[in-house]
Specification:
The complex is a heterodimer of chains A (247) and B (290).
Chain A (H helix, E strand, L loop, with lengths): L1 E12 L2 E12 L3 E5 L6 H8 L7 E6 L2 E2 L7 H5 L2 E4 L11 H11 L5 H14 L15 H13 L5 E5 L7 H16 L3 E5 L3 H7 L2 E6 L2 E6 L1 H6 L4 H15 L1
Helix pairs in contact in A: 3-4, 3-5, 5-6
Chain B lengths: L16 H37 L4 H8 L2 H41 L6 H16 L2 H11 L11 H27 L2 H9 L4 H31 L11 H12 L3 H35 L2
Helix pairs in contact in B: 3-4, 3-6, 3-8, 3-9, 3-10, 4-6, 5-6, 6-8, 7-8, 8-10, 9-10
The chains are: A alpha/beta (247), B mainly alpha (290).
The complex binds adenosine-5'-diphosphate and magnesium ion.
Magnesium ion binds next to helix 1 of chain A.
Chain lengths: 247, 290
C-alpha cells in the first residue's frame, strides 16, 4: 500500500530553486534512503514532507489524503509523522521524560501517567531507562539522538523522517543510533532517511534515491543504485564519496 | 602454593607526591591572599575615617545628617512611607511583568488578522520607552482625574498605572529579546511533534526565553524600586516624601539617611536573588556550551 506520494514538488528560496518537480513514492513498511551531495535538498525535502515549509508547487498525499491542500490543518498531519533532526533538537529545559511526554500529553490528550509509562517503556527498549529524569545536556550525543527518536516514536507515527541523524555524532556513537533504526525497520516502521552512511543505506534501505538538481535522478534497490548506477551523476557522486573515505 | 589474585581489589586513591605539593602550595596561597586583603582593607578604612572625621566641617555635618534623636523620631513616619513603597513595588512589578510579557507575545503574532495588535504593541513600546516617567505620572494623576469621570480610581492606583505602563515598555523588549534568542530549530522540533503555534510558545519557547532573561528582568525590578517613590509627586506619602516632611520640621537631614538606609536594606534581598539567578543562568549556559 502506498503511504506517501509526492508529485512535482517545487521549493525555492528567494529565487534559488532547491526542489524542481520532484516525485517520490513510499510504500508502507518500506525504508527509503535519500542520498545526494550536501545542498542537494535532502533536508528541504524532508521539511516539506512534514509541512514545515510551504511548497511552491506540487502535491503531497499521505494515506491517500492530499495534505498539501491549504484547507488541511498541518498540525494534524504532523501528528502522524515523526521527524528526527541532525542536531537532535531536544528541549533543554525539559527532562528526558518530559521531552518525550510533551506531545502525547499536549497533542494527543493522554494522561500524564499513561504517557510517562509509555515513555519509560520506550526508553527501556533503547537502553536509556536510567536517564529518564536527566536533562538533555547531561547526555552524550548518541544518547540524545536516541531520545529524539523515542520522542518522535511516542506519537505512534505512521511515517518517520530522519535527517542525517548520525552526522553530528562521534564515530563510536554512530552504531548505537543505527542499531535503533535497524530495530525500527524490523518492526515495520515506514521511514524516509537522508544519510551519508552508504554502507548503512545499502543494509537498511529497500530503495535508494539519489537527489541532484532538485529531483530524484536515480532510484532503485540499494545494490543497483549504489553498486551499479546508470546515471553519470550518481557515479560521480559515489566516486567522490569513496575518494573521501580513502583520505 | 597460593596464586596471586588476577585482579586486586581497588585500593583507595592515594594522591601522588606532585598532587600533595600542589595542594599545600594552594593552601599557602589562600592564607596569604586572606592576610593581604585584611591588611589592605584595614589601611584603607583607617585612612577614610581619618580623612572624613578630620575634615573641618565634620562636626556640623554629623549633627545635621546623623542625629540619633532625629532619626528615632522620624523612623515611624519613614517606615509607614516605606510600606507604601513596598506595596507599590510588588503590585507594579507584577503588573509590569505581565504587561511586558503580553506585549512581547503580541509582537510575535503572525498573520494579517493580527496586524492592528502588532502595530499597537509596537507603538506602545516605542512611546513608553521614550516618554519620561514623570510626564506619564503627571498626565495620569493630574490629567485623568480632571476628566471627572464616574468611578475614577484613586491617585495611588493611577500613579501605579503610570509605573506599570512605563516599565512594561522596557520589560516587553527584554521578553522579546528572550523569545528571539530561542533557536528556530527548537520551534521546528516542537511543530514537527504536532504542537500548535500557541502550544509551542507556551511549552517550548517561553520557558527557555524567560529563564534566559530572568537576570535583566529582575535588574529592571530593582531599578523600579527606586522609581516607585515618584508617585509621591502626586500626593501619596512614600518613604522619601516622609523623610522630606520630617526634615522640614526639624531642619535636620537625618531622616533622608534613615530612608536611604531602609531603601538599601530593602534592595539587598532583591539584588541577592538577582545575583543568584544570574549565576545559575551563567552556569547552565556554561554547561550546555560544552
Ligand atoms: N531556510 C533557508 N533559506 C534559504 N536557503 C535555504 C534554506 N534552507 C536550505 N536552503 C538552501 O537550499 C539548498 C538545499 O539545502 P538542504 O536541503 O539543507 O540540502 P541537504 O540537506 O541535501 O544538504 C541549499 O543550497 C541551501 O543553501
Ligand atoms: Mg541536510
Amino acid at each position: 500500500m502506498t503511504l506517501l506520494r509526492c508529485r512535482g514538488l517545487r521549493k525555492t528560496y528567494a529565487g534559488h530553486v532547491v526542489l524542481d518537480g520532484l516525485d517520490l513514492t513510499v510504500d508502507e513498511h518500506r525504508v527509503v534512503a535519500l542520498i545526494g551531495a550536501s545542498g542537494s535538498g535532502k533536508s528541504t525535502l524532508l521539511r516539506c514532507l512534514n509541512l514545515l515549509e510551504p511548497l511552491d508547487d506540487g502535491t503531497i498525499e499521505l494515506d491517500g489524503q492530499d495534505v498539501s491542500d491549504p484547507r488541511v490543518d498541518p498540525d494534524r498531519v504532523r501528528r502522524r509523522i515523526g521527524m528526527v533532526f541532525q542536531s537532535y533538537n531536544l528541549f533543554p529545559h525539559l527532562s528526558v521524560l518530559d521531552n518525550i511526554t510533551l506531545a502525547p500529553v499536549r497533542v494527543h490528550g493522554r494522561s500524564r501517567a499513561e504517557a510517562a509509562a509509555q515513555a519509560r517503556e520506550l526508553l527501556d527498549r533503547v537502553g536509556l531507562a536510567a536517564k529518564a529524569d536527566d536533562y538533555p545536556d547531561r547526555l552524550s550525543g548518541g544518547q540524545q539522538q536516541r531520545v529524539a527518536i523515542v520522542r518522535a516514536l511516542a506519537n505512534s507515527p505512521r511515517l518517520m523522517l530522519l535527517d542525517e541523524v548520525t552526522s553530528a555524532l562521534d564515530p563510536e556513537l554512530v552504531g548505537e543510533v543505527l542499531t535503533l533504526i535497524r530495530d525500527l525497520k524490523a518492526e515495520g516502521m515506514t521511514m524516509v532517511l537522508a544519510t551519508h552512511e552508504m554502507a548503512f543505506a545499502r543494509e537498511v534501505a529497500d530503495e535508494v534515491c539519489f537527489l541532484d538538481g532538485g529531483w530524484v535522478v536515480e532510484s532503485g534497490p540499494p545494490e543497483r543504485v549504489l553498486g551499479d548506477p546508470t546515471e553519470p551523476r550518481t557515479r560521480q557522486f559515489l566516486h567522490r564519496i569513496i575518494e573521501a573515505r580513502r583520505l | 602454593m597460593t596464586l596471586a589474585p588476577p585482579h586486586l581489589p581497588p585500593s583507595p586513591h592515594v594522591p601522588s607526591e606532585a598532587q600533595r605539593r600542589r595542594a599545600a602550595y594552594r593552601r599557602r596561597q589562600t592564607v596569604t591572599s586572606v592576610l593581604v586583603a585584611a591588611a589592605s582593607t584595614a589601611v584603607l578604612g583607617t585612612l577614610l575615617v581619618v580623612a572624613v572625621t578630620g575634615a573641618p566641617g565634620w562636626d556640623r555635618v554629623r549633627a545635621s545628617f546623623g542625629d540619633p534623636a532625629v532619626a528615632r523620631d522620624a523612623l515611624p513616619e519613614v517606615l509607614t512611607g516605606l510600606w507604601l513603597n513596598v506595596r507599590l513595588l510588588v503590585c507594579c512589578a507584577a503588573g509590569a511583568l505581565l504587561l511586558g510579557l503580553l506585549i512581547a507575545l503580541a509582537r510575535t503574532l503572525r498573520g494579517p488578522v493580527f496586524f492592528p495588535v502588532r502595530a499597537l504593541a509596537a507603538g506602545y513600546t516605542y512611546t513608553f520607552r521614550g516618554l519620561p516617567l514623570i510626564i506619564v505620572l503627571y498626565l495620569l494623576t493630574l490629567g485623568v482625574p480632571g476628566l471627572r469621570l464616574q468611578g475614577m480610581p484613586s491617585v495611588l492606583v493611577l500613579g501605579g498605572l503610570a509605573l506599570v505602563l512605563t516599565y512594561g515598555g522596557y520589560l516587553a523588549e527584554v521578553f522579546r529579546a528572550g523569545i528571539e534568542s530561542v533557536h528556530p530549530s527548537q520551534l521546528a522540533a516542537a511543530r514537527s511533534l504536532g504542537l500548535t503555534y500557541r502550544q509551542t510558545m507556551r511549552h517550548v519557547v517561553l520557558p527557555q526565553a524567560v529563564r534566559r532573561v530572568a537576570p535583566p528582568l529582575l535588574n529592571d525590578v530593582v531599578a523600579m524600586q527606586k522609581d516607585v517613590g515618584l508617585v509621591s509627586l502626586a500626593g501619596p506619602i512614600d518613604a522619601v516624601r516622609a523623610a522630606q516632611i520630617a526634615t522640614a520640621e526639624t531642619f535636620n537631614y537625618t531622616p533622608y539617611i534613615v530612608a536611604g538606609v531602609l531603601f538599601v536594606l530593602l534592595a539587598i534581598p532583591l539584588i541577592a536573588v538577582t545575583d543568584a539567578v544570574t549565576l545559575r543562568a551563567a552556569r547552565r549556559q556554561g554547561r550546555s556550551a560544552r
